[in-house]
């Protein structure tokens, strides 16, 4: 019987659905294992062969774990909110939900063809109100929480209010935007609005003033990468830096826990390193400087407290609140001019640091160590959002300070012994401090760092400033709070309305607050976000429902928030929802959470290192603090699948000024004689680099009359390895492969391409090999061209036992390491061996079927049933190997004469050396080498070589 993959795959897809083979429930009698793929954004282009790579890899693991007795959760869903659907909606008027659902259906169809073991009953879609209910709920919880630095934990905001009532803000150690000082009496005397304003300073979800790239032309905030040279990437409209009220999440409060958690999870070193750098822990010192002839004091942050004696000027960030306080009347005009200039610069421009810019404030600060007065400057190279937004500049030891000093002609004082003030010496962390001068100045108390190493000098200075009360030790993190508002339509609405200008939460029992309908998806003419167009978008606090905007009276009916949540909102806790997807009472029940705990294996791209993988860790830690999630880290092990690159094809158009003439294309190997432009051509109309000329003419109207210069009667295309993308016309659709070879071949082939974590080009040349392998596999069970089913009770031959048990060992070990390509090679070897051995032993062949089941589940199910087994092969028990069969019975020795290898001989492994020697010398093949010589001695390297040393 033939291997009829089309029939087999169709049949098993149906059976799996009918029998709910992949449905999983909490089962206390079994150990759990949670496998998760990063869920896809269902784009209009559908899946290409690169997408399933990670899904196949995790599916193999999920099936393997199930065969090993685990209760495996392997869910799938859709990250369904997002920009492309919205942009498409703006262009076509099509509701983003319509396109999103159409795309989801197409994805589902494609995924189903590949035979994944997903439990579709647990599917989630982030745009489903039943799902985003819990995104909104978590946001409200964050709004109603603050972060205690002392216990490093989120706490209910009521606790903070109580404290303010009793003690005011004194001695408070919590995460906050700025220091606010008030007594209990003051707090108690504040009205509600004032209290709300103060609390906003501490909430984990807060409305904050943040600097954004505001594009008035487009009426929206743009991300850094959407701004190019000060104008919007789309449309080229000017972009300015604007302070705007935006929802923010206090991710920065969790910096230390985000760092510590990395030590407890099995992620690649490179992703951990990326996250460490992104969080950017920096231990330093804060020192207070007083402004000369004024009451103003400001604090700087430095990691090099040892350089206090080399400070020659101070620099404030342009946004620093101290700028106004230190700017003198004479300098005012120039300072204003400079601030105007900075407004147009994005943070990226400022970091790029191409040119040195700045302005003198007119004031001087006093160095607390030397008592000297030093000028205070304002410059964009100091960022408002880091440290204190103010620095002490040490041009001898910091390259940016150096450039600034050179540019504005400020003094430079070196402090390290023998260090020359040149570019190279800036990072000199080693060395002895020698030039911390002149003891005896009153403000220094004779404090000197001379003779100390840099490390010692930093420690000594920290101690000194702390004792003197002019500073403190401070740990800073680079991680910023996440901006959580978007001026978009297709996202989760905030469950928030505004009363007296302050945000209020829609009552928890009224969630979800559903996204309203609007007619067009653009911002309003007055620059409000698209939700500004919704007619029914106000909150009635009495009826507790959404009502018409015209009813807003600001007494009982209030306007609702117009922003929506960003892309990462819906993906931050979806793994928890899969544990209990239909629960209307909670994000996840205690029981489900305690059973599934966290994700054991997470598979997805490494491009999410500083986005999703930070946000979701933060989100989960917050839910952990709330007691909702029982594990602090969401993803125990992370595997980043590589990218499948496309193999693009090119045709070469001969350049011509005559645009009316039909285009002429020249074949690859003749193009050197012409002036040509390479053009991407759809790989689907090229076969083995030969262009299908008729298909090419039909591909684009402008090529209808194209002419070709051929070689050997063919048009040969050029090729290159590039990212697989629609714009390069190198996308290979998995449906086509499934149609031609079957899903099992596709699955095997994707894994056979190379290690899961490596990026590799898609190259269909090897597909036939994988397909042939499955046919051979089938051939062990069904005799060629007959219906004879071969497995029977025949005794297992020793060599077959060895082949199968070796394979069990290899595949088990390889799957644990995600080394699937090597297990597939092992399969190929074993199947060849068993074929040659004519193995018919039913038990061994049954083991073989179970082994292949994770990789090629359809063929495995079919043969499992043919073997007369009940139920699905998914519920079989993974075979165990027996050491006794792995022993090598024979050894192959290379026989050499005077060091030259001549032939090989096989002996039972326990053959004594004398016996080997005897047989070698007696062997017929040896005679021609021995002739005319005397045997001097025979050297035997055990299990490897026999060398016969001869002499005339
Ligand atoms: C004096 C000094 C001397 C510094 C020296 C460095 C080298 P990390 O390690 O990244 O934390 N700095 C502080 N706040 C800044 C801000 N808002 N914008 C730009 N630069 C800022 O770096 C901390 C160092 O970066 C601080 O230590 C400060 O310069 C600068 F030989 O102070 B240093």
Automatic annotation (TrEMBL):
<dbReference type="GO" id="GO:0002161">
    <property type="term" value="F:aminoacyl-tRNA deacylase activity"/>
</dbReference>
<dbReference type="Pfam" id="PF13603">
    <property type="entry name" value="tRNA-synt_1_2"/>
</dbReference>
<feature type="binding site">
    <location>
        <position position="726"/>
    </location>
    <ligand>
        <name>ATP</name>
    </ligand>
</feature>
<protein>
    <recommendedName>
        <fullName>Leucine--tRNA ligase</fullName>
        <ecNumber>6.1.1.4</ecNumber>
    </recommendedName>
</protein>
<dbReference type="InterPro" id="IPR001412">
    <property type="entry name" value="aa-tRNA-synth_I_CS"/>
</dbReference>
<dbReference type="GO" id="GO:0006429">
    <property type="term" value="P:leucyl-tRNA aminoacylation"/>
</dbReference>
<keyword id="KW-0547">Nucleotide-binding</keyword>
<dbReference type="InterPro" id="IPR014729">
    <property type="entry name" value="Rossmann-like_a/b/a_fold"/>
</dbReference>
<feature type="domain" description="Leucyl-tRNA synthetase editing">
    <location>
        <begin position="276"/>
        <end position="461"/>
    </location>
</feature>
<feature type="domain" description="Aminoacyl-tRNA synthetase class Ia">
    <location>
        <begin position="11"/>
        <end position="144"/>
    </location>
</feature>
<dbReference type="InterPro" id="IPR002300">
    <property type="entry name" value="aa-tRNA-synth_Ia"/>
</dbReference>
<dbReference type="GO" id="GO:0004823">
    <property type="term" value="F:leucine-tRNA ligase activity"/>
</dbReference>
<dbReference type="InterPro" id="IPR002302">
    <property type="entry name" value="Leu-tRNA-ligase"/>
</dbReference>
<feature type="short sequence motif" description="'KMSKS' region">
    <location>
        <begin position="723"/>
        <end position="727"/>
    </location>
</feature>
<dbReference type="Pfam" id="PF00133">
    <property type="entry name" value="tRNA-synt_1"/>
</dbReference>
<feature type="domain" description="Methionyl/Valyl/Leucyl/Isoleucyl-tRNA synthetase anticodon-binding">
    <location>
        <begin position="801"/>
        <end position="914"/>
    </location>
</feature>
<keyword id="KW-0963">Cytoplasm</keyword>
<dbReference type="InterPro" id="IPR009008">
    <property type="entry name" value="Val/Leu/Ile-tRNA-synth_edit"/>
</dbReference>
<keyword id="KW-0648">Protein biosynthesis</keyword>
<dbReference type="InterPro" id="IPR025709">
    <property type="entry name" value="Leu_tRNA-synth_edit"/>
</dbReference>
<dbReference type="InterPro" id="IPR009080">
    <property type="entry name" value="tRNAsynth_Ia_anticodon-bd"/>
</dbReference>
<dbReference type="Pfam" id="PF08264">
    <property type="entry name" value="Anticodon_1"/>
</dbReference>
<dbReference type="InterPro" id="IPR013155">
    <property type="entry name" value="M/V/L/I-tRNA-synth_anticd-bd"/>
</dbReference>
<keyword id="KW-0067">ATP-binding</keyword>
<dbReference type="GO" id="GO:0005524">
    <property type="term" value="F:ATP binding"/>
</dbReference>
<keyword id="KW-0030">Aminoacyl-tRNA synthetase</keyword>
<keyword id="KW-0436">Ligase</keyword>
<dbReference type="GO" id="GO:0005829">
    <property type="term" value="C:cytosol"/>
</dbReference>
<comment type="similarity">
    <text>Belongs to the class-I aminoacyl-tRNA synthetase family.</text>
</comment>
């Amino acid at each position: 019987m033939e291997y009829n993959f089309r029939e087999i795959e169709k049949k098993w897809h149906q059976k799996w659905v009918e029998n709910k083979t992949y449905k999983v429930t909490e089962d206390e009698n079994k150990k759990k294992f949670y496998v998760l793929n990063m869920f896809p954004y269902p784009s209009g282009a559908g899946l290409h062969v690169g997408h399933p790579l990670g899904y196949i890899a995790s599916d193999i693991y999920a099936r393997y774990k199930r065969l090993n007795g685990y209760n495996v959760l392997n869910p799938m869903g859709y990250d369904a909110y997002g920009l492309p659907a919205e942009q498409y909606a703006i262009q076509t008027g099509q509701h983003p939900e319509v396109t999103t659902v159409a795309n989801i259906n197409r994805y589902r169809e494609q995924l189903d063809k590949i035979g994944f073991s997903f439990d579709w009953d647990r599917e989630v879609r982030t745009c489903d109100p039943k799902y985003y209910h819990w995104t909104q709920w978590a946001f409200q919880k964050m709004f109603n929480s603050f972060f205690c630095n002392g216990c490093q934990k989120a706490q209910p905001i009521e606790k903070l209010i109580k404290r303010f009532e009793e003690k005011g803000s004194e001695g408070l150690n919590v995460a906050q935007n700025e220091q606010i000082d008030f007594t209990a009496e003051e707090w108690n005397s504040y009205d509600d609005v004032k209290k709300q304003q103060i609390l906003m300073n501490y909430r984990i979800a807060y409305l904050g003033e943040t600097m954004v790239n505001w594009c008035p032309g487009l009426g929206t905030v743009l991300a850094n990468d959407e701004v190019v040279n000060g104008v919007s990437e789309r449309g080229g409209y000017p972009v300015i830096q604007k302070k705007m009220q935006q929802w923010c999440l206090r991710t920065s409060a969790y910096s230390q826990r985000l760092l510590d958690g990395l030590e407890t999870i099995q992620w690649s070193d490179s992703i951990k390193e990326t996250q460490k750098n992104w969080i950017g822990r920096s231990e330093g010192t804060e020192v207070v400087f007083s402004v000369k002839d004024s009451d103003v004091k400001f604090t700087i942050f430095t990691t090099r407290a040892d350089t206090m004696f080399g400070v020659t000027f101070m620099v404030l960030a342009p946004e620093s609140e101290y700028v106004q306080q230190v700017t003198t009347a004479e300098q005012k005009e120039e300072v204003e001019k400079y601030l105007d200039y900075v407004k147009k610069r994005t943070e990226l421009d400022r970091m790029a640091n191409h040119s040195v810019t700045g302005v003198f404030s007119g004031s001087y600060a006093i160095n607390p160590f030397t008592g000297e007065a030093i000028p205070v400057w304002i410059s964009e190279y100091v960022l408002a959002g880091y440290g204190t937004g103010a620095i002490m500049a040490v041009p001898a030891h910091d390259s940016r300070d150096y450039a600034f000093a050179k540019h504005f002609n400020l003094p430079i004082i070196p402090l390290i012994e023998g260090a020359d003030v040149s570019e190279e010496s800036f990072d000199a962390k080693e060395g002895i401090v020698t030039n911390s001068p002149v003891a005896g100045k009153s403000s220094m108390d004779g404090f000197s760092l001379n003779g100390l190493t840099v490390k010692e000098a930093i420690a000594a200075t920290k101690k000194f400033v702390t004792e003197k009360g002019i500073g403190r030790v401070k740990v800073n993190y680079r991680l910023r709070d996440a901006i959580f508002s978007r001026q978009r339509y297709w996202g989760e609405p905030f469950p928030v309305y505004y009363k007296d200008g302050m945000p209020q939460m829609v009552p928890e029992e009224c969630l979800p607050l559903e996204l309203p309908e609007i007619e067009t998806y653009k911002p309003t003419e007055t620059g409000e976000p698209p939700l500004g167009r919704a007619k029914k978008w106000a909150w009635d606090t009495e009826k507790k429902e959404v009502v018409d905007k015209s009813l807003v009276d600001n007494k009982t009916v209030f306007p609702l928030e117009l922003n929506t949540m960003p892309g990462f909102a819906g993906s931050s806790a979806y793994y928890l929802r899969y544990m209990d997807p239909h629960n209307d009472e909670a994000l996840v029940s205690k029981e489900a959470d305690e059973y599934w705990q966290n994700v054991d294996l997470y598979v997805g791209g490494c491009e999410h290192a500083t986005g999703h993988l930070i946000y979701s860790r933060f989100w989960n830690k917050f839910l952990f603090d709330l007691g909702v999630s029982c594990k602090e880290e969401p993803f125990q092990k992370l595997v980043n699948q590589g990218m499948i690159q496309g193999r693009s094809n090119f045709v070469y158009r001969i350049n011509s000024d005559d645009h009316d003439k039909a285009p002429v294309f020249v074949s690859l190997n003749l193009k050197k004689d012409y002036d040509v432009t390479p053009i991407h051509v759809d790989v689907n109309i090229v076969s083995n680099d030969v262009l299908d000329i008729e298909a090419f003419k039909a591909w684009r109207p402008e090529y209808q009359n194209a002419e070709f210069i051929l070689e050997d009667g063919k048009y040969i295309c050029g090729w290159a390895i590039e990212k697989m993308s629609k714009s390069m016309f190198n996308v290979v659709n998995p449906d086509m492969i499934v149609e031609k070879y079957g899903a099992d071949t596709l699955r095997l082939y994707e894994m056979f391409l190379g290690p899961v974590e490596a990026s590799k080009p898609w190259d269909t040349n090897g597909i036939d090999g994988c397909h042939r392998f499955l046919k051979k596999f089938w051939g062990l069970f069904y005799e060629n061209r007959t219906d004879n089913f071969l497995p029977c009770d025949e005794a297992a031959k020793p060599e077959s036992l060895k082949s199968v048990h070796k394979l069990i060992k290899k595949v088990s070990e390889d799957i644990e390491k995600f080394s699937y390509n090597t297990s597939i090679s092992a399969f190929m070897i074993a199947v060849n061996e068993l074929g040659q051995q004519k193995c018919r032993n039913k038990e061994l062949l049954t083991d073989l079927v179970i082994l292949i089941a994770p990789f090629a589940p359809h063929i495995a199910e079919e043969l499992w049933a043919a073997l007369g087994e009940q139920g699905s092969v998914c519920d079989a028990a993974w075979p165990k190997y027996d050491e006794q069969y792995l022993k090598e019975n024979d050894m192959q020795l290379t026989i050499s004469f005077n060091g030259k290898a001549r032939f090989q001989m096989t002996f039972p492994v326990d053959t004594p050396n004398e016996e080997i020697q005897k047989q070698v010398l007696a062997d017929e093949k040896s005679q021609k080498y021995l002739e005319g010589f005397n045997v001097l001695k025979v050297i035997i390297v055990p299990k490897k070589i026999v060398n016969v040393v001869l002499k005339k």
